[in-house]
Amino acid sequence: MPYSKGRRILPVSFGTLLLLPHLVGAAHAAVDPAKSSDEAPKIRVLLKEKVGSLEISGWDVEALMPRSAIQRVRRVGRQAWKWKCLADRVELDGMPGAQSRGPVEIQSPAGTLFLGSILVRESIILHPSKAGCSIVNRLDIERYLDGVLNGEFSSKWSPEAVSAQVIAARSYALYQMREARRRRAIFDVESSIRDQVYLGTQGEEARASQLVARTRGMVLVAGPARAGEPIKAFYHSTCGGHTDAPEDVWGKSQTGVRGGVVCEHCGSSPRFNWQLRLTPRQLDEALASYKNGSVIGLEVLSRFSSGRVNKLKVAFLGKGGVISTRIVPGSQLRMLVGSEKFRSTAFRILRGEGDSWIFEGRGYGHGVGMCQWGAKEMGSAGFQVHEILSRYYPSARLMRAWQ
Ligand SMILES: [Zn+2]
User: Fold this and answer.
1) Cα–ligand 1 centroid distance for 346 (angstroms)
2) pTM for this predicted structure
3) Rounded CA gap, 153 and 161, in Å?
């Protein structure tokens, strides 16, 4: 364990261990959105939306329906419950009176339930709407991370690299929890790449759980100005040599995530270099929302300090031979072509045969925060977890938010 486990030992600033007990109380309250003391908070993960009907089973299952004539239903024995979600209402099939216009929470003392054939931890909340139910899994954030680890990275990587990534994932999740609760949203995170890929219990395995436990409660928080608030610890596959500032990518700064840093460690990534060839038609289709005709010219107008493309000038040949130009952000071009195909905005443009467009680039992902391949290689090279984190989140501090 690279960390001290004492109740009041952390927060820790990178590079220097500081005993700051006077900060612990305030920082602790600020970090934990549920304001619990020593317990890990519960996170609400959106599993599915617009569901018309579903089956839930388990041993000794209980449903709490505060907005129903029957407010509590319990069933012992492995028998599936059928739920229907219709017209702003959720109802238990075959039980008149068990109809709710509000959320229904289903749980089991065993701690697990089956949603169809999928094993789910802790509880399931059904939120009815006109379009059907949103299914939300409410569970301990540490168990959530067990199911994120192999969705976003790999437990086979070195313990130091995985620990750094788990801390980033925990910090990101905690940040999203705070934001969701401020907005009074019905869930905190999605289970897809829109937030973090959550594989559920199918993604769990012993090594992943051990590596999550190794950093239990550890989060990255913003510096002294906003002491104790978790940072939105972005990460991405491969930076290609330099990470980027959130304001350069999304036009908006993020507390605790500063401008880009040099990364010398991701050269072994299979995604370090890439090339994409688009036919004239494919590029025209990608930029069709600009509705100016066929693309006849494409040039990089400006780049950020990281080398990523800021703005492009696109020349279109329209009806009647009219030529017009438009300014297109590099990140917009990437999204319009498809962010999996067009791997990053660190690219240059070439022309190929048949007037095809060739994009040669580096890295994969938005480039903000931690470079996962860089972290992987740093871990293999013997760097410690705090060294990896301080490389990619230089203005953040590390602290233990719960024991
Ligand atoms: Zn990198």
Assistant:
1) 12
2) 0.85
3) 10
